[in-house]
Amino acid sequence: MAATTIAATLAACNDSDNESGILEPSLTDNVETFVLATSVTDGDKTANVLLSSGSLTDGSVTAVNNGLVNDGATEWVCHSDKYLYALTYNQGNAGTTRSYVLNDRGEITARPAEYKVTRFTSFGKFGDYIISASTGNGLTEYADANGNLPKMFLLTWLNVEQETATQSDSGLKELYTSENYCGNGEYATLSGFLESGGKLYSAAIGMGLSAYGCAIGNGQYVRPGFEDLVKQESGGSGSGAYVKGELTGTQYPDECRVAIFDNEKLEGRKLIRTDKISYACGRYRSQYYQTVWAADNGDIYVFSPSYAKTATDPRQQTKLDAGVVRIKAGASEFDPNYYFSIEAQSGGKSFLRCWHAGGNYFLLRMFDRPFSESGYVATQLAIFDGDTGKLTFVSGLPSPYTIADFGKMPYVAGGYVYIPVMTTGSYPAIYRIDPASATATKGLNVETTTVTAVGLLKL
User: Fold this and answer.
1) CA-based nearest residue to 387, from 359, 351, 352
2) Are the C-beta atoms of 134 and 121 separated by less than 8 Å?
3) Average confidence score pLDDT of the chain
4) No. of H helices and E strands in the chain?
5) DSSP state, 262?
6) Cβ(134)–Cβ(114) under 8 Å?
7) Beta partners for 366?
8) I need a surface site. Which of 10, 27, 157, 356 has the fewest CB within 10 A?
9) 160: helix, coil or strand?
10) Phi–psi pair at 373, nearest 5 degrees
11) Residues contacting residue 86 through CB under 8 Å, at least 6 positions apart
């Protein structure tokens, strides 16, 4: 069946009508539709297909002779219910990005522009922009006496209205340098971009000391007792590569810093710090998942999975639980009276990533066992209530032993969260989660191999 579906989807060019049940949320206007980023795999062949549906709560949709074949994406981003962006990450190289809209017949259509974006490890939105970011080497003119290059933020701004891509100017060293970003000598990377109250929020993640930073003041930023962690030769590969003279991994795992900017250019930076949680980001290979989210009332919730517990060296492991702190709406400091432990309510388990789920609720993709155990996988979901600080595991989902994956981009509307769920032995389905009761109900069946994202597009 998979081989037949592959052949059929590769022959398909346009969306076709899909009839489905009329349960909330359902659409009756032919110039708006739910869109699903899917793929169908058979052996080593994969077809990526964008499908449309009039409902997420009932019926089924198939990729056979249906949908818009595309190149796929590492991350899908919906902007203002009007644009769907495919952000592509190609093993450290520049990826091809393009966007999709609805035409006047309600069909998903690729926009004409296609462009390269700088390698990214995180992304987010601000105003008319989707921002992607990573940290890499600066210009050779900034090299120290030993030829070591300072680390810089490498950013791309995608203007969704103008359909343009602009990259950061590495010559603006004062604005985009990543060295000594938090005042402790370490260079940083940024995780996620959140717009709230006219400001831009991002978690600043300490990455350790680059060879450039290690050499400053003959090693003045190397903490006493950490000297043996400085690499004596280059090695590693991929996201784990390092160079001689570098100290990889933060020396300060028991703190979290959030940067607050005036605009998308990262101007007007203010850094705030708390020692209640470790750094705020989910991690998977080289990707840093956003864990800083705004509630509907403007309060900012900062989640830490305490990923530093997985560090190899005990000196670089955090002692802090996976937990949550808060920045009140309009404030520029952490709320001193707000903290909740996730681990204390989950049997010591942490989470891979999280999303705002409407109101003061947040959806967490939980691991099935603590970091202290081996083989942990993120096959459970939980709801965190920002008002009460209570964590509740979601009921009504398939058995965690049969869940293979969740979608990366849920859809939130009408007090519910809609998330793709992939299980072994059956097609994916969209599940509707009621955050107030932490219950899930099976909805739309999607006859494909995977569903990466679900969203809404309007003309």
Assistant:
1) 359
2) yes
3) 92
4) 3, 34
5) S
6) no
7) 351, 380
8) 10
9) coil
10) -100, 160
11) 37, 70, 71, 72, 73, 76, 97, 98, 99, 100
**Among 44-53, 163-172, 354-363, the least confident range:** 163-172
Phi then psi dihedrals of residue 119, to 5 deg: -40, 135
Query: Which candidate, 224, 315, 329, 319, places its Cα nearest to that of 275?
Result: 319
Query: Is the preceding peptide bond at 428 cis, omega within 30 degrees of 0?
Result: no
Tell me the pLDDT tens digit for each residue of 30-74: 689 999 999 999 888 999 999 999 999 999 999 999 999 999 998
Averaged over 175-184, what is the pLDDT? 95
Rounded distance, CA 342 to CA 322, Å? Answer: 5
Strands (E), 349-424: 351-356, 361-366, 380-385, 391-393, 403-406, 411-413, 416-423
- Does residue 140 sit in helix, strand or coil? helix
CA distance 81 to 160: 11
Q: Which residue has the tokens 């967490």?
A: 364
Q: Which residues on adjacent β-strands are paired with residue 199?
A: 196
Which of 99, 111, 103, 80 has the alpha carbon at shortest distance from 30?
103
For 331, the 3-state DSSP assignment is: coil
Handedness of CA 223, 229, 230, 235 (dihedral sign): negative
d(CA 351, CA 355): 11
376: left (phi over 0), alpha (psi -120 to 50) or beta: beta
Q: What are phi and psi of 262, to 5 degrees?
A: -80, -25
Q: Could you read off the pLDDT of 364-385 as tens digits, one per residue?
A: 999 999 999 999 999 999 999 9
14 vs 19: CA distance, rounded Å: 16
Find tokens 């869940």 and name the residue: 403
Backbone phi, psi, residue 343, to 5°: -65, -35
Number of Cβ within a 10 Å radius of residue 228: 10
The answer to whether the beta carbons of residues 350 and 280 sit under 8 Å apart is: no
Query: In 118-263, at which residue ranges do the beta strands (DSSP E only) sit?
Result: 122-126, 129-137, 151-159, 164-167, 188-196, 199-206, 208-209, 247-248, 256-261
Which pair of structure tokens corresponds to residue 45? 């062949």
CB 396 within 8 Å of CB 451:
no
pTM: 0.93
